[in-house]
Amino acid sequence: ESSRYLSDLFTTLVDLKWRWNLLIFLLTYTVAWLVMASMWWGIAYLRGDLHRAHDDTYSPCVANVYNFPSAFLFFIETEATIGYGHRYITERCPEGIVLFLFQSLLGSIVDAFLIGCMFIKMSQPKKRAETLMFSRAAVVSQRDGKLCLMFRVGNLRNSHMVSAQIRCKLIKSRQTPEGEFLPLDQCELDVGFGTGADQLFLVSPLTICHEINSKSPFFCLSQRSLRSEQFEIVVILEGIVETTGMTCQARTSYTEDEVLWGHRFLPVMSLEDGFFRVDYSQFHATFEVPTPPYSVKE
């Protein structure tokens, strides 16, 4: 498993938490600087430049490098293209020229990898999902004479979610007629695939509706059986962020304890001075309505 993560190192770094990314960023540059400075110091030491650095008649590999701190400063000046002019490579040092080329290539690779990783991580649209709201609970009540499972979604920002689409998965354990036990069986909940109701124009809070009929996995669900059921409804909202053009996904889930039978969501929109006003303080509020306690099958 570790080798698979390392084979895709870039994605692994992007998926890490910010504190680990910053630590790797600092350690990589610090270690690379120390190693390269040590190589410059090693060349000066092997050539004897450290002992004859103050000899005006001697031509060293790097002028004015007397010890490790001066070698480190020379590397930083070269890498950051500062060039104070006090330390420089002379033409009588082929190994220094080769090391300079290696340093330039290695620095470009490290900069492209780490800075690209940080840029991708900062531009990820995960935080956009924080302003997409889901109701804390789902409700079961009648709409247009049909028993429906409903929940509410909303967008706090003024910018739209382009091509927003919603999907629902029912996760529940079951046993097949052959005796095979499926601990996390996934079943799709129809929230308007045939009618296009799953394509959302999310300019105001919307109530997503799943009609409970003979094709629904909740066909036999009643108010009494709801207390003994064990399931989870996973809701996935996907869309394109209007400002960046990147795909964003927000998720939530409802367990059997978060499904309220015989409830309806409180209205949150009102017309004031010719404009619609949304009161998000009532976004999660519900109230009881008369609902038959029987399943659709019953």
Automatic annotation (TrEMBL):
Residues 132-297 form the Inward rectifier potassium channel C-terminal domain. It catalyses: K(+)(in) = K(+)(out). InterPro entries: Ig_E-set, IRK_C, K_chnl_inward-rec_Kir, K_chnl_inward-rec_Kir3.1, K_chnl_inward-rec_Kir_cyto, Kir_TM. Coiled coil: none annotated. The chain crosses the membrane at residues 20-46, 58-76, 96-120. Gene3D superfamilies: 1.10.287.70, G protein-activated inward rectifier potassium channel 1. Belongs to the inward rectifier-type potassium channel (TC 1.A.2.1) family. KCNJ3 subfamily. GO terms for cellular component: monoatomic ion channel complex; plasma membrane. GO terms for biological process: potassium ion import across plasma membrane; regulation of monoatomic ion transmembrane transport. Residues 2-125 form the Potassium channel inwardly rectifying transmembrane domain. It comes from Opisthocomus hoazin (Hoatzin). SUPFAM superfamilies: E set domains, Voltage-gated potassium channels. Keywords: Ion channel, Ion transport, Membrane, Potassium, Potassium transport, Transmembrane, Transmembrane helix, Transport, Voltage-gated channel. This is G protein-activated inward rectifier potassium channel 1. The record marks D111 as: Role in the control of polyamine-mediated channel gating and in the blocking by intracellular magnesium.
